[in-house]
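Case study.
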Amino acid sequence: MKIAVIQFPGSNCDQDALWSLRNDLKVQAEYVWHGESNLAGFDGVFVPGGFTYGDYLRCGAIAAQSSVMAEVKRFAEEGRPVLGVCNGFQILCETGILPGALLPNINERFICDSIFLKAENKISPWTEKVDSPVAVPIAHGEGRFIASEDEIKSLENNNQVAFRYCSNNGEINGAANPNGSMNNIAGILNPGGNVLGMMPHPERITSKILGSDAGLLIVSGFQRVLATVYGFK
Amino acid sequence: MVTVRVNVNLKPSLLDSAGRTVTKSLVDLNFSEVSDARIGKTITLQLEKYDEARIKAMCDKLLANPVIEDYSIEVIS
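After joint prediction, the assembly is written out as follows.
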């Protein structure tokens, strides 16, 4: 199994992602430059966080036009695992691989903190291992998830809400919502469940030496998606 | 050459958090008549010729995000 970690000008979580995949999840992983137009040889994609193209125009808007994103779209459609974290989530929304958009945090501040997440969907490969509220770092200025009323309804009805911000005992309320996201949404899935986009950073907590390895519960979704779709062991 | 101005604004139904901060700041400066401020973007394009369909395509593909933004096109000269 080999995962592509996409690098754009302005990516800054790419090294964390690669380290996490190689050393903690223990799968093969390589950087792929955004100008590539072929992901042959790779089984999944990690779109890391950062400030691609200086967030010009809108977060992720320019990166979404990169040639490699056409391949990421193909991977998403073929049922392969695609994980977009933070700016990576914004890029997946800008390409239309996931619905919705991310707006500036409601308090107009960049937030660097640890928050609690509750897995809403209990059966997707990305969320099934998260059975109690888990503390995950966030670091973003524009994480307020927004979608049209119809889109939100469809996400809720189709079990595409992966994670919600919650209190330490799992209560979903306004106080636990760091950025004003609709319905406390922290991460969403595509209809097939093979693509996950989320603002919090599971790749930053995949080793006990970093304070927690709970992020592995999520990042190991790469293996579960591939096991389901392609029979990988 | 044609100069065209594209104005991109957050949809009125969405909370503009930066605009809200500006509103509050103006009120704090005693401009108490201000009840709302919204911040948009202006993109001024120099074009070889005016072709509305192509400008709309630019907006739909890159300049505006239809999920959160509306845009208008203005011919300047």
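Observations recorded in class. Chain A has one domain: 2-230. Chain A touches chain B at residues 57-58, 61-62, 65, 93-94, 99-101, 103-108, 144, 146-148, 151, 180 (CB under 8 Å). We will return to this complex in the next lecture.
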